Task: inverse folding
């Protein structure tokens, strides 16, 4: 499975870009275009490296507002900008990246234990999120001070 290989840069079906943060992948899926429009797809365990247990979507985010702002102890996420654009601030407290999401064939996969916050939503943005776990409030690490304490315990 390609998810565990941090430095993988290309797969037959995807372009995969690694980052300085372990457990974070940026995947660009194929696009099939013809006179009717464009089709892109992702399959669980093939492109999204986990069984999908839940889907949710974020839209109508007011100007200046953000979503997320937490990490998960167990849950992995795959985030797609199906419409519009937004930024994702991602950190493991050692490194951080900002990723611009503005293509519907772009997927960010965030492993458990990674902090992320979705920001700078365009007025028409729709973010689709696939998760590896069902909703569990106990899985959330929030605020960032709680996340930092959890990370220290994991590294000890």
Result:
């Amino acid at each position: 499975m390609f998810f565990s290989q941090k430095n993988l840069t290309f797969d037959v079906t995807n372009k995969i870009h690694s980052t300085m943060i372990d457990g974070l992948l940026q995947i660009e899926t194929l696009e099939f275009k013809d006179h009717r429009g464009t089709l892109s797809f992702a399959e669980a365990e093939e492109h999204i490296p986990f069984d999908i247990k839940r889907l949710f979507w974020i839209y109508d985010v007011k100007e200046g507002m953000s979503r997320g702002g937490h990490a998960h102890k167990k849950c992995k996420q795959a985030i797609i900008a199906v419409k519009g654009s937004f930024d994702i601030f991602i950190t493991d407290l050692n490194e951080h990246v900002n990723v611009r999401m503005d293509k519907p064939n772009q997927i960010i996969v965030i492993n458990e234990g990674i902090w992320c916050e979705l920001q700078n939503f365009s007025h028409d943005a729709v973010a689709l999120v696939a998760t590896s776990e069902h909703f569990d409030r106990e899985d959330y690490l929030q605020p960032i001070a709680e996340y930092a304490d959890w990370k220290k315990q994991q590294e000890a």
Notes: Helices lie at 144-155.
